[in-house]
Design a protein that fits this description.
CATH topology of the largest domain: CPE0013-like fold
Distance between the termini: 58 Å
Strand order of the largest sheet: 8-5-6-10-9
Radius of gyration: 19 Å
Bound molecules: iron/sulfur cluster
Amino acid sequence: MKKIVVCTVCPKGCAITVKDCGSQGVYYAGHSCERGKTYAAEECAAPKRILTASVRVQWGNRHMLPVRTTAPIPKDQLMAAMKALKKITLEAPVDFHQVILSDIVNTGTDVVSCMTVEREGMQ
Ligand code: SF4
């Protein structure tokens, strides 16, 4: 079966054709470099994504905090990870890049804050 994978490793965004994904005779076309071939192979075998989301914050100068995983996690774990994040309510202050949740859904990847949240009334 043929699959088109858009490489996200660099801004060029090559459309890579992968034929017979998962078989012995995998065929790649359209990649401009080896990094794209590696990406396409990974995307074919076990796709991963960076997860971005928001979590609730109490006592802060904002109510929601944007967060993200420090590395891509398996695509089939994204919903479980979202559910885990939905259960979290942080208490301000929160620092930029503070670990919010370690080893989310046993992926070995941490979730960190994408910004600072000050405690309400403290500057
Ligand atoms: S295949 Fe290479 S050049 Fe093309 S997008 Fe991927 S990393 Fe960039």
